[in-house]
Amino acid sequence: MQRAEYPEEIQNLIQQLKRLPGVGPRSAERLALHLLSTRTQHPLDLAQALMAAIQGVGPCSRCGFYRGVRALCAVCDAVGRDESVLCVVEQPADVLPLERTKGFNGRYHVLGGRLSPLSGVQPEHLRLALLTERVRAGGVSEVILALSADVEGEATAHFIAQSLAAEPVTVTRLAQGLPAGGGLEQADELTLFRALAGRCAVR
Ligand SMILES: [Zn+2]
After folding, report:
1. CB under 8 A, 24+ apart: contacts of 53-58
2. How far is the CA of 128 from the centre of ligand 1 (A)?
3. Which of 63, 73, 84, 116 lies at 20 to 30 Å from 99 by C-alpha?
4. For 44-96, how does the pLDDT look when each residue is reduced to its tens digit (9 = 90+)?
């Protein structure tokens, strides 16, 4: 006997939802049915917000954080920030956790990942050359490395310290205590604040 299934449209919707992080088959099914059953405008608003975000958001041409319609992001656009300190993070998602600590008022530089020879991530795949360029442009006296405390984060920090060795900047890194490989968004504000305040020079 052939088992009945949802119409193809619903199956497709479930398939797409299942691809989201943290959404299993059961949740995907529940979400799909919820979206279809609601009598409000919400599912269409959701679809529209998704389209608008995908089409309208891109990386800031200077630091790599998210920007909207402007060429620069809210951090690069802001006046009154300390131009002499540059905080290097792996992902755009690492910027706001640092902002929320209120312990940093400089600028950011998003690498777009970390060096990983095993996964084939080489220096040219990251925004490393742009970092050196920004430092060479002048005005930066400290580069803070806010990278993961795992082997790949260490390797990336070492690489950056080496490539900036000839520049007149101090390279520091966050004090230990960040979740290894978890990224900054996993750390709570107080831990991050302390890690920032207790940063030390990279040799
Ligand atoms: Zn920016």
Report:
1. none
2. 15
3. 116
4. 999 999 999 999 999 999 999 999 988 899 999 999 999 999 999 999 999 99
Gap from CA of 198 to ligand 1 centroid (Å): 25
Query: Who contacts 167 (Cβ-Cβ below 8 Å, separation ≥6)?
Result: 132, 135, 136
Q: How far does residue 140's CA lie from ligand 1's centre (Å)?
A: 15
Pair type for strands 107-110 and 142-146: unpaired
- Ligand 1 centre to CA of 200 (Å) is 25
Note residues around ion ligand 1 (Cβ under 5 angstroms).
60, 62-63, 65, 73, 76
Q: Give the model's pLDDT for residue 150.
A: 84
Which residue from 119, 117, 184 is spatially nearest to 145, judged by alpha carbons?
Answer: 184
Percentage of the chain lying above the pLDDT 70 cut = 95
CA of 178 from ligand 1 middle (Å) equals: 24
What global pTM score does this model have? 0.82
Q: Record the tokens describing residue 100, joined without a space.
A: 């929320």
Please report the DSSP string for 81-105 in residue order: --TTEEEEESSGGGHHHHHHTT---
Q: How many CA atoms lie within 13 A of 162 on its CB side?
A: 7
